[in-house]
Amino acid sequence: MQTMANTYNGWIDWILNTSQLSDKFWHVQAGLAILVIARLLLRVPLRSFLPLFVVIAAEAGNEVLDRIYLGAWNWDDTASDVFYTLLWPTILTCGAFATARYPELSEPPKWLRRWVIRDEKRTDEQE
Q: How far apart are CA 79 and CA 12, in angstroms?
């Protein structure tokens, strides 16, 4: 298991050193990428919580490999990694679930409708 953790951490270090971007940036990107890939492979809508559970499992695996590589938990780093990885997948999943459950949430507010939704009369007249 230590060999796998060392190899995994080597890849992570290579990505961070090559890109010159922070690991928090990559946690956000990985969370979103895993969410989209899981959604496509599982063939479920985004409103399903199953792709989010895949992201949670992948992040848990990442943190376990980090723990094995370091030999101890680094709770500050672990907490921030979990936060950055799960933030947007959770927001997107909950938003999709809410709009599916409450369709009125997907409609723009009345004060914005005249700019967002075309007037049906004008559309009918043009045809």
A: 18
